[in-house]
Design goal:
Blueprint (H helix, E strand, L loop, with lengths): L34 H12 L2 E2 L12 H11 L4 H5 L4 E9 L5 E8 L3 H12 L7 E3 L2 E13 L3
Length: about 150
């Protein structure tokens, strides 16, 4: 049921009281993270990212195991299968000094569904042995092609 109301009805004014009006200040609590965690995070992101180093990062077991891991982990998206979409998605990522994989991105994509699946697999990789420059572990940008092929 719809009630039609006249537009010229006078409404009673009501005051809105806020904490500023009553002079009571809101309680504010500031979280302070442990200094060591902040410093470590800032140090990691402040480190330069190398593309070529004396000792390149290694996937556990080598390049053969990397390719095996990729082929075993990929679940071909159903939508891409139905549409017959295939191709090579090139992904780049950074391997931190501790071997963890971060900042994965698609450099050259094929289709959004394939790109998303490639990133999912890249982000699920186990820790690598980090790259080294002058004997010290450094952050290294690494690029891997992920090939999607229908049988």
């Amino acid at each position: 049921m719809l009630n039609v109301v006249e537009d010229n009805v006078e409404l009673e004014q009501q005051e809105i009281v806020s904490s500023e009006d009553t002079q009571t200040a809101a309680q504010v609590q500031t979280y302070v993270a442990p200094a060591a965690a902040i410093q470590e995070e800032e140090e990691e992101s402040a480190q330069p990212i190398f593309t070529v180093v004396e000792e390149m990062p290694q996937f556990p077991g080598g390049t053969g195991d990397l390719l095996r891991f990729l082929s075993n982990s990929i679940k071909y998206p159903v939508i891409a299968q139905e549409n017959g979409i295939q191709g090579r998605v090139t992904c780049a990522f950074v391997i931190n000094r501790d071997g963890s994989v971060v900042d994965a991105e698609v450099v050259r994509g094929v289709d959004p569904s394939l790109d998303k699946e490639a990133l999912r697999v890249i982000n699920s990789m186990p820790k690598w042995s980090p790259g080294k420059q002058r004997g010290k572990p450094v952050r290294v940008k690494y690029t891997v092609p992920v090939t999607f092929k229908l049988q």
